[in-house]
Amino acid sequence: MNYGDYQHLVFDLRPDGVLLITINRPEAMNAANARLHWELGQVWLTVDADPRARVALVTGAGRAFSAGGDLDMVEEMAGNPTAAARAMREASDLVYNMINLDKPIVSAINGAAVGAGLVVALLADVSIMSETARITDGHTRLGVVAGDHAAIVWPLLCGMARAKYYLLTSDFLDGREAERIGLVSRCVPPDKLMETAWEVAGKLAQGSQPAVRWTKRALNNWLRQAGPIFDQSLALEMLSFMNEDVREGVRAIREKRAPEFPSAR
Question: Which member of 127, 132, 208, 222 has the lowest number of beta carbons within 10 Å of its beta carbon?
Fold first, then answer.
């Protein structure tokens, strides 16, 4: 694909080789509909194929980074093995394509990051988060398994005890807490977010490209070793879309209330 083929991602390639990628559905807080979910997996192949791009810098348009999965897409997957199988392939592509891209990725987490957006935010090689941004994995609140990325990277970033707490409860974290527990690389005031992200991305773009890229490749073997853990978590997530809890989870989110899951009655 060419950059012009993307519908919900906007690109700005700077002369120093930093490619700004903006997730662009601000009217929906950049939530991932079916098209954006697919694009988030494919874009890393496009970046890899562009010799001009040295570093990818990702942020969200408006006040959110990406506020999770579009509820219409979630409802389509509920009880639908065909839709779940498609989403499973796309979710796998997103994780493995980010891991296998040797060019460094910097995320500038400007606001809410949930679901597929959180995958991009936390699998970035350097994650820079606004103090006022809030993140949650959110899967268990919806009634499904935390399978998108969490099992492969959260225990490495913040340790098993904290990973279990936040993934089982779906509690929110702000930027300060995310930095304190090691979930993100840096936390900065909102007005310093993009300035800091550009500075880091520019430093990586001006560094020795083989040294930077091959260092990332070597470090990502920690994630590749955890591939079977991720694969099982993703399969279990898709399986959980086949039960009634997810329908109640969607209703509760739409109605802005606590869910009453059938499995907990």
Answer: 208
Domain boundaries of the chain, sorted by first residue = 3-194+207-212
- Interatomic CA distance for residues 142 and 177, integer angstroms: 23
The number of residues in the chain equals 265
Indicate the CATH number for domain 3-194+207-212.
3.90.226.10
Residues 208 and 191: their CA atoms lie apart, in Å, by 30
Mind listing the pLDDT tens digit of every residue in the chain (265 residues)?
899 999 999 999 999 999 999 999 999 999 999 999 999 999 999 999 999 999 999 999 999 999 987 888 889 999 999 999 999 999 999 999 999 999 999 999 999 999 899 999 999 999 999 999 999 999 999 999 999 899 999 999 999 999 999 999 999 999 999 999 999 999 999 999 999 999 999 999 999 999 999 999 999 999 999 999 999 999 999 999 999 999 999 999 999 999 999 999 9
Does the predicted TM-score (pTM) go above 0.90? yes
Tell me the three-class secondary structure of 92-141, residue by residue.
Answer: HHHHHHHHHCCCCEEEEECCEEEHHHHHHHHHCCEEEEECCCEEECCHHH
